[in-house]
Task: structure prediction
Amino acid sequence: MAKLNSDGETQWGRCFNFVSEGESGWSFPRTLITNSDDVYLALHYSKPMDLDEIILPFEGDGSNDWIALVKISASNAEVLNATAYGSASNQNIAQLKFDSKGSLIATGYFESESDFNINGQRPITYGYDDAYVAKFNSNFELQWLRSMGSEFDSRAFNLSITESDRIFIGGGFDSYTPFYFQGHKVIEMQSPNSLGMFQVIIDGDGEFEKAFALYGQGISSIVEYNNSVVLDNDIVMAIGASIDYVDFIEGNTFYSDHTAGFLLQWDLSKNFYKVLFNIKDADGNTLENAIVTLGNTTNAAGSYSFYQIDDGTYTYSISLSGYNTLNGELVVAGSNVTQNIELTQSGTSISSVQMPVVSVYPNPAKGNFIVNSNSEIVGVRVIDALGSVVFSMNVNSNNVRVNTETLQRGLYIVVVSTKTGTTNQRIVID
Result:
C-alpha cells in the first residue's frame, strides 16, 4: 500500500509479511475504502500474516485464500485493527463499502461444502458456491450475515449502497435451479438454463426486499455482471459481458459469437411483498415444524415466510403431524400479508377445519355493510378494482360493521381473514 499527495509524491508505503518462511504463499488486495481518518482494506492471503504484531490466522494447506479486513491510519499507516475469516476450503471477498453510519458492508462468495463462518456464524448453503453479504461495525464486529444462491454455482461481484442504506448485491448464478435468499425462493428457475445475472436488494438490517435476474436464451449463454450504479427509483446502470444469445429486454436480443460488452439500464422499481403465516393451536400456542405451501412453493418444515410475492390471489395448504390439514386462500394487494392460522388436532370434527362460512350484506351496500362469520374474524380489508387496499381493520369478533361513506361507487373485493382461513367476497358500493 502507498499514500500519495496531489503531486504524486509518496507520503508513506506499507507492506505486510508472512509469519514464517517455507512453502510459498500469496496475498492479494481486493478492495479499498477510506474516510477522512482511516483506510479499510480487504485482502486474500494463503499463510498466516504479521500486521504490526496482529497475527492473521489461517486454516488449510495453503492452496486456498482466507479473507482479512484491515483498518489502517490514513495519517501514518499504523495498523489499528484487523480480523480474518474463512475455512479450509475456498472463499472470496469482492467489495467493501460504508453505509451512512460508518458500518462496513462486505460481499463475496464461499464454497458451500465447507466450514466457512464469520466470527463463528455460518451461513445457509444451497449449491457448490454461494454468495454472502455481511455487515460489520467499524471495529469489525459482525452485525449480521446473509447468504444467497442457487443449487449450483452463485457468486456475488458488486455492491452498492443508497443514501437510505438499502443494499444492492449483484452477481451471477446458474439458472437451471431457483435462486434463494436466506433459505427462501426469490427467483424462479429458467429453462433453458444459462449463466445469468442477479440483483438482490435488502435493507440496512439485512432484511430482504426484492430480487431480479437476467438470463441468456440457452445453455451456452453466459452473462457476466461486472459492476453497477444505483440511480433514483431503483434504476440500475449495469455493465458486463455476454456470450451467445442474451435476452435482456423482451423482443430486444443481444447476441455475440464471442464475449461482447454491454451497458444497460435496468428498472428494478417493481414492488413485491412478503407473506407470513402465524400458526397456532386452539389454545393460542405457536406451532413449529408445520409444512406450508403457498401457490406452487412449498417451504421446508417450520419456515412460515414467503418472499417475492406479486399481487394476486393465492391458495395455501398447511399440514402438521397430529393436526388436520388446513386449506385456504389469501389475497396480496399492495402490502405485506400476515395470515393467522389455527390448526385443530386430528380427530376434531372436520367442520372445524373447513373454510369459514362468511356473509357480507347488504349487497349492494350504501353507507355501511356487515361482515358475519362462523369463525372468529381477525381482519377485514377492502380492495378496489385497481388492486389497492382502500380499507383495513383488525377485528376480534364474529361480526363487524364496515363504514363505506369514504368509498366511491363501484365493485370491490372484501377480504375476510378468520382464525380458520381467508375468504373473498365481491360487493358493490352504491
Notes: The CA atoms of residues 272 and 308 lie 5 Å apart. The first strand starts at residue 2 and ends at 4. The radius of gyration is 27 Å. The mean pLDDT is 88.
